[in-house]
Design a protein that fits this description.
The chain is mainly alpha-helical and 151 residues long. It has a domain of 35 residues. Helix content is 79%, strand content 0%. The longest helix has 67 residues. The N and C termini lie far apart (97 Å). Keywords: Coiled coil.
Length: 151
């Protein structure tokens, strides 16, 4: 036999095995379905008058349920109060942070402005960088900018 014939024979046997396996699997599923005892019944419309209570509700009655409901309502109120207190504290902290950031920004801005003004007024530090900076500030002021923003 040639190599091609052997390959064809191998492929044919492989297909037969797969077909047998699929057939067996299908038969097994059909047997399981025949043995199945689950038969669901779907109710299309609920009738509120004939609604049944769960066994626990019938045994306990309304008298045992009310204290539990009151307890749950109280826990929910406490949780809401705590949440509101946290929200208020968060808002206060955010305001405090905003004020602190604004103060720091103003302080840093003043320090930088004073440092630049001191450098510009110092006659001993006559460097090219200082001359270039003075020229840029004068150009900005001449163009209509405020001296504070130019500095």
């Amino acid at each position: 036999r040639t190599h091609l014939e052997r390959e064809e024979e191998l492929l044919r046997r492989k297909k037969e095995k797969m077909k047998n396996w699929e057939t067996q699997l299908h038969q097994k599923e059909m047997e399981e379905l025949r043995e199945c005892t689950f038969r669901p019944s779907l109710v299309k419309k609920l009738d509120h008058r004939s609604r049944q209570q769960s066994p626990r509700m019938r045994e306990a009655g309304d008298s045992a349920v009310l204290p539990r409901l009151h307890q749950l309502v109280e826990r929910q109120r406490n949780a809401m109060e705590t949440l509101q207190a946290l929200s208020y504290a968060d808002a206060q902290l955010r305001d405090q942070l905003r004020v602190t950031q604004a103060d720091l920004h103003d302080r840093i801005q003043r320090e930088e402005t004073q440092r630049v003004v001191a450098m510009l007024q110092d006659p001993e530090s006559n460097t090219s960088a200082q001359k270039e900076l003075i020229g840029r500030v004068r150009t900005m002021v001449a163009a209509g900018g405020s001296p504070e923003s130019a500095q």
